[in-house]
Amino acid sequence: MVSRHISKRLLNYRSALVQLKKMGFDYVFSKTIGEETGVSSDVVRKDFSNMEIRGKRKVGYKVDDLITKLDEMFGKTCCFEIIVVGIGNIGKALTKYENYLSDRIKIKAGFDINPSRINVDNKIPILHFDEVETFVKENDIKVAVVTVPEISAQLVCNKLVECGIKGILNFAPVMLKVPDDVFVKNISFADEITRVFYHAKVN
Predict the structure, then answer these.
(1) CB–CB of 146/82 below 8 Å?
(2) 96 lies in a domain?
(3) 37 Cβ partners below 8 Å, 6+ apart?
């Protein structure tokens, strides 16, 4: 298994390759992938070499082969099924505009405690959070997106872990505490915007 840092880079390669394919590229050089993802061509070649992928002289790498290899590496060539907990502004945007997500990600359901947000007939059904344990176990869900208020985030996280969730993408403004076998990625809009200002050297 590759490190988290390298896995992020490989997924960036995949996103770039999907876009290049849409633009009509059949073959691509490491320099082009590097320019699209912000790394050097040497790093790209090294990453692919570690995956036993070799390009062809004068034509580069075959785009379809790279995408297939990356899909195989990350374990699926179809869909990753997830749930969204908290159907406020962020959660609603995710469930309403699912097309913004990767074609490999499918939101199976949303969950909330507010009765006015429950809609079992929605394209992506919105269920009461009381039903989350049954739904997770029946559908073998392993990853959840959490978009609840800070005050309830840890309690929601604890419940999801009890249900068998192993990965959480957390938009709540709090650092969640989880067991060692559960992976959490905390997303802070404030921190990310601060990083953008810092790297853009905006005073």
Answers:
(1) no
(2) yes
(3) 9, 12, 13, 16, 44
Picking from 105, 133, 135, the residue whose alpha carbon sits closest to that of residue 120 is 135
201 domain-assigned: no
Range of the domain at 62: 4-72
Report the range of poorest mean pLDDT among 45-54, 109-118, 128-137, 141-150: 45-54
Distance separating alpha carbons of residues 200 and 155, to the nearest angstrom: 37
Please indicate, yes or no, whether residues 87 and 186 belong to a single structural domain of this protein: yes
pTM above 0.85, yes or no: no
Predicted confidence (pLDDT) per residue in 51-84, tens digit: 888 888 888 999 999 988 888 887 655 568 999 9
Q: Angle at the Cα of 70 (from 68 to 72), degrees rounded to 5?
A: 70
